[in-house]
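Need a sequence for this fold. Nothing fancy.
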């Protein structure tokens, strides 16, 4: 049992229940985030909570929500939740703002509530074992259909179906193409592609979700004098002839891809030089072993 933030207070998770008629449950009208805290048992810190909460609030605006919290308040509430639970381990925090209307019928009715829940998420090895990927048979939805960059719960049917598709065919991860046929991202992660010391990731215009991990890595690579980094459209062929391909996201951190549809990427280990540098830097940064920019780490 753990405390969660629900209905404006800290309550036992068994008490955090919503009525069956809740709008968000029927129409996918909720926004969410995935934030991580890294801790060693005696101290812990949240990684980039302000950026996650700014994104959450931007996405809430798409659903015409008028949240009463700002990113500072939401960060404070998250710290308080971890403190009250004495959670100083590696953790995943799931903030959710959902439409509470009990009226049946689509639309964007007024009224929303905030919930904060957490679950343990121990850090994996810095260099994660490389995995396989396949093209998802489902394309990433275009910005003309709905806000492509938003973490809106209803939109995650796309990710869920892409994941089920590739897992069902025996692969570990999906690469989703956008409606133009370019590479967009994974089902819950952004993608980086390296050819020698040139590294690129699809631009926001490729209908991706602008990941915070992607942003961190763009800053890291931008600081490396021997690496040229860009955000450019990536074709499926660019991916197949790359030396290195990896996914990145808050939950998965940095995940090397060793083959796509059975075709080997680079030397087939997935552990190329740019991935190794990025994974090492990322772990040191999130765990506070190396100085992070400004407000990236917020102590619990
Ligand atoms: N794309 C999608 C579809 C995602 O769900 C996520 C996870 N939030 C990402 C990319 C990576 O984003 P972030 O680095 O902010 O976790």
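Here you go.
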């Amino acid at each position: 049992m753990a405390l969660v933030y629900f209905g404006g207070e800290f309550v036992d998770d068994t008490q955090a229940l919503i009525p069956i008629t809740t709008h968000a449950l029927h129409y996918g009208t909720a926004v969410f985030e995935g934030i991580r805290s890294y801790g060693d048992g005696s101290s812990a810190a949240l990684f980039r909570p302000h950026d996650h909460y700014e994104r959450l609030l931007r996405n809430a605006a798409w659903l015409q929500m008028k949240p009463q919290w700002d990113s500072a308040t939401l960060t404070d509430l998250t710290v308080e939740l971890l403190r009250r639970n004495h959670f100083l381990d590696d953790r995943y925090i799931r903030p959710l703002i959902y439409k509470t209307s009990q009226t049946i019928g689509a639309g964007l009715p007024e009224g929303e509530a905030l919930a904060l829940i957490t679950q343990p998420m121990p850090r994996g090895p810095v260099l994660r074992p490389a995995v396989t990927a396949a093209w998802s048979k489902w394309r990433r939805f275009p910005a003309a259909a709905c806000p492509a960059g938003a973490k809106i719960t209803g939109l995650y049917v796309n990710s869920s179906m892409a994941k089920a598709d590739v897992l069902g065919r025996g692969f570990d991860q999906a690469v989703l193409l956008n409606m133009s046929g370019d590479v967009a991202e994974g089902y819950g992660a952004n993608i980086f592609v390296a050819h020698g010391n040139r590294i690129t990731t699809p631009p926001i215009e490729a209908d991706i979700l602008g990941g915070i991990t992607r942003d961190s890595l763009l800053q890291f690579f931008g600081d490396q004098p021997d690496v040229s980094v860009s955000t450019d459209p990536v074709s499926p062929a660019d991916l197949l002839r790359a030396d290195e391909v990896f996914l990145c996201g808050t939950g998965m951190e940095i995940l090397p891809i060793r083959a796509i549809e059975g075709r080997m990427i680079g030397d087939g280990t997935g552990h190329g030089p740019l991935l190794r540098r990025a994974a090492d830097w990322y772990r040191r940064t999130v765990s506070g072993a190396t100085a992070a920019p400004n407000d990236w780490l917020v102590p619990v």
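For context: The two ends are 20 Å apart (CA to CA).
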